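ok so i was messing around last nite and threw this chain in just to see what happens. nothing serious, just curious
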Amino acid sequence: MKIETVAIIGLGALGILYGNHFTKAIGKDCVRIVVNKERMARYREQGISFNGEPCDFQYVDETDASLEPADLVILAVKGTQLDEAIETARNQVGPETTIILVLNGISSEEVIGAVFGGEKVVHCVAQGMDALRTGNDVKSVHIGELRIGIDAPEKQDRLDAVAAFFEETALPHVVEADILHRMWAKFMLNVGVNQVLMVKEGTFRDIHKEGPTRNLMIAAMREVLPIAQKEGVNLTETDLENDLAIIDGLTPLGMPSMRQDGIAKRPSEVELFSGTILKKAKKYGLPSPTNQYLYDQVQAIEATY
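result:
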């Protein structure tokens, strides 16, 4: 199982980052940027660039069923676009295709698995990148790394193939022994940081200092711990402390994606965060008042758009 062709679904900051990286590494003929006709026309006319340099992408129409399925499909969309991305990916996925998602949250893999087969999904956490899309250009200094791993031993061949491909294309990556733990730890961080700063309309500086905003964030994060335990993931106070250390290292004037959504009046990924928490809390009979509060506040903000 060797990966030679890649299909990228979603041309936001990360889609452009990885599209550019792999196109330069293995050539545009082996990298498909899969889009609908309308987007294809727009991208071809306006162009896409990475750090100001035009990207020479191969665009493939999502309805084109003439190509062999891709060896690797990378889903790089926001959670709000997942259903659309599934339709865009359909003609790229065959029995041997491996799928990775560079999305936030812990529920998207289940959704993709239900559609295409869970055996195709290699779990992934994208971290450490600073890619920011403005118009059709992406600015990035740090490519970050992909943390990859599997939730079942029978996927080992697929994991090995993805790791070998990343090695061959010099994409920074780490193979995780316990990827689900890594995903839940990042999820817990996002549940706190993303939602609280959207609701409180702040920057990272507001959660660095002791006070009600930081306390609200920690309370939201703490509600993740018992749910993770019920899901068989041993997330503990130590993980929460580790997350806080990461948070305290964030650029004070920076903002998470949900705060950026609030400013731009875009639908946020609240369903991936408190939306997921509330569903799972209900399933297990656990209280989650902080996430209920944040969920309601975000709904109220989005209702004003």
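not much to say yet. The radius of gyration is 19 Å.
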